[in-house]
Design brief:
heterodimer, A: 185 residues, alpha+beta, six-stranded antiparallel β-sheet, 26% strand, B: 112 residues, alpha/beta, Transcription Regulator spoIIAA, 4 helices, globular
Chain lengths: 185, 112
């Protein structure tokens, strides 16, 4: 069973300069610092690729934006995963940086996250961001979703989420694939 | 306040709180000491506070949320001037700091 949320840009052809990073979590004592290490690696890797292919935009801006986006999404994968590995795939389609992250989440997390996505993917992300910051400061929400809203509003990222359940058991884990696309300027 | 890997440094001098390095802490609890420093600095220097981010290369959304919450608390107190200093050299600041001004229009945002 599949459920889909969010937006994505249809690509013309395959991704170029693809890298795949697989966190084998049983062997790796996964810790918070791994988020930023991995994000900075992707940022340096792709700014190097871009500079070698005469990227006409601002390289510093592209590098920082890739790092911010990768860090936010890897933080989410590490924070909400329910065991299992974390798989990361990145690539370029022209000046579009594409990041795909797969991880397993619990049925309960999946349910809560889908409710959140219903809210934050319907409406103007700029207004939703301010509303959620206000609600969070007033103690009415947990602050979750702010990272995604900053990506959508401040960075113009297109993000989509695919939830897949392998069996029909109500409490079996759900595989979540997050695809984020960032136009580099 | 420094973390053991020295990735970031936060300290106060008078009514100015300086942030430096890369701050990507794991959530509200991890940012609590930073919030305490902001609150303490304002308590010791009533009337005005300056947040200097000109050397803060990266901040994750949990950290942006911490700043936003602090700004909202300042907004509630009449007569407190708040200034946030940023740098055009650091891309996240131009993208995300204007949100603070939306939350509190009287905030003086200086991205030089």
């Amino acid at each position: 069973m599949k459920t889909q949320f969010g937006q994505r840009v249809e690509l013309n052809g395959a991704l170029q300069h693809t890298t795949k990073i697989h966190f084998c979590t049983e062997q790796l004592a996964l810790k918070w610092a791994h988020c930023t290490i991995c994000a900075d690696f992707l940022s340096q890797w792709y700014s190097n690729v871009l500079s070698a292919h005469s990227f006409a935009g601002k390289l510093n801006d592209a590098a920082h934006s890739i790092s911010y986006m990768a860090n936010e999404l890897i933080e989410n994968a590490i924070k909400f995963r329910a065991g299992g590995d974390v798989e990361i795939e990145a690539g370029l389609a022209g000046n579009l940086f594409v990041l795909e992250i797969g991880n397993s989440i619990s049925s309960e997390t999946s349910h809560k996250f889908q409710e959140l996505l219903e809210e934050i993917t319907n409406g103007d992300p700029g207004e939703l961001l301010i509303q959620r910051i206000e609600a969070n400061a007033a103690g009415e929400s947990s602050g979750s979703g702010l990272g995604l809203l900053t990506l959508m509003n401040d960075y113009g990222a297109k993000i989509s989420w695919r939830f897949e359940k392998k069996d029909t058991m109500a409490d079996s884990p759900v595989h979540l694939t997050t695809v984020a696309q960032l136009q580099l300027h | 306040m420094e973390n053991k890997d020295a990735e970031y440094k936060v300290w106060a001098e008078g009514n100015v709180v300086f942030f430096e390095g890369t701050m990507r802490l794991s959530g509200t609890d991890a940012y609590a000491p930073i919030n305490e420093l902001l609150v303490k600095t304002l308590a010791e220097n009533p009337g005005s506070i300056i947040i200097d981010l000109t050397n803060l290369e990266f901040l994750n959304s949990s950290g942006i949320n911490l700043l936003a919450k602090f700004v909202i608390n300042v907004r509630k107190e009449a007569g407190v001037a708040i200034k946030v200093k940023g740098s055009q050299r650091i891309p996240w600041q131009g993208k995300s700091l204007p949100n603070l001004k939306k939350l509190h229009p009287a905030l003086d945002l200086d991205i030089a």
